[in-house]
Design goal:
Blueprint: H1 3-9, E1 15-20, H2 30-36, E2 46-49, E3 55-60, E4 66-71, H3 77-88, E5 91-97, H4 103-115, E6 120-124, H5 145-156, E7 174-179, H6 190-203, E8 207-212, H7 216-228, E9 235-239, H8 247-255, H9 261-268, H10 273-293, E10 298-302, H11 308-317
Helix pairs in contact: 4-5, 5-6, 9-10, 10-11
């Protein structure tokens, strides 16, 4: 079922969903199931599965030269989606990136998803690889998420890269995209960021999932700006509870989001990460209650591979 259909059928009730990471290469899928199992009590209509592109490493050879190696540390997105749908009978939503994909790769990826009965995808540009400062598209790939959305929408209309195909079958993906209440790190301003978000909606995206935020007013202001610009699709808030003291520095640096002073001071006063984890849970519970009261369609939690703190939050909200 499509995300938009889940929202329509909820009749105004806020739904619970979450996102998981594929396990590191070499680990089995049991670690995924162990984290999903406790959350199924709260009846998620869908589960997002992130996609992780290749990384470049350099290995020193005996002669002192460096050999470049391509490594994918978290493979398995498509297989995990299939396993989730089979085991739990809920929709699994894979992320699909511009980075690391040619247009042909993208088309074949989407065909596989369609054959598996997957109804939704989240279309993202993706980040630059660690060895590069700025994002660099594949030679025959997409530079922007709006271009990726357009290709997916083309397939939904039965338009393939090979225009000579006869009697081609149309897909029917519901397309989600990312939104940034505090703007994308590369955007010069929030207004310009919303301008490009609008292009993704015009290209065919049907819902938005936001980057994490810790101040609900940032989300409310973002939604208001989007509505003023004519963006009418559902805007799903993405939440993540802080779990370690280290994240005070890591989250603003990696995700370019602000942390409220009150939250920072509460974490600073904690004696250990166990106390930090509890602060993160309580802060996220209060965020969640306010968002539910505001009538958001879905609360989407970034689990980052661990579910115990998400479970503690869901127990209070759902």
């Amino acid at each position: 079922m499509k995300v938009t259909e889940h929202i329509a059928q909820s009749e105004g009730k806020t739904l619970f969903t979450f996102e998981i990471l594929p396990p590191l290469k070499g680990q089995d899928i049991k670690s995924i199931f162990d984290n999903i199992d406790p959350l199924m009590e709260y009846k998620p209509p869908f589960i997002d599965v992130t996609y992780h592109r290749e990384e470049y490493t350099f290995k020193e050879l005996e002669n002192g030269l460096l050999k470049k190696q391509v490594v994918k540390k978290r493979p398995g997105t498509v297989g995990i989606c299939a396993a989730i749908q089979n085991k739990y009978s809920v929709d699994a939503i894979p992320h699909i990136l511009c980075g690391g994909f040619t247009k042909e790769d993208t088309e074949n990826f989407l065909i596989d998803l369609d054959f598996l009965g997957i109804d939704n995808v989240v279309a993202l540009r993706g980040d630059a690889v660690k060895s590069e400062i700025y994002f660099k598209a594949e030679k025959e790939g997409h530079r922007y998420a709006s271009e990726l959305v357009s290709q997916i929408q083309d397939l939904n209309n039965g338009k393939y890269l090979d225009e000579e195909l006869q009697n081609s079958s149309a897909t029917d993906f519901c397309i989600g995209v990312a939104g940034y209440p505090e703007k994308h790190m590369e955007a010069p301003s929030l207004d310009s960021d919303i301008h490009f978000l609008k292009k993704k909606i015009k290209a065919g995206a049907e819902y938005i999932v936001t980057q994490m935020f810790f101040d609900n007013q940032k989300y409310f202001d973002f939604v208001e700006k989007c509505r003023k610009e004519g963006i009418t699709v559902p805007i799903i808030p993405g939440l993540k509870p802080i779990a370690t003291r280290k994240q005070l520095n890591l989250i603003p640096h990696r995700f370019k989001v602000d942390l409220p002073d009150d939250l920072i001071m509460e974490v600073v006063r904690c004696k250990d990460n166990k106390a930090v984890r509890q602060v993160g849970i309580e802060w996220c519970i209060q965020q969640s209650k306010e968002l539910v009261a505001a009538g958001v369609p879905i609360l989407h939690y970034y689990s980052m591979g661990r579910s115990s703190n998400i479970e503690a939050i869901a127990k209070e909200i759902f």
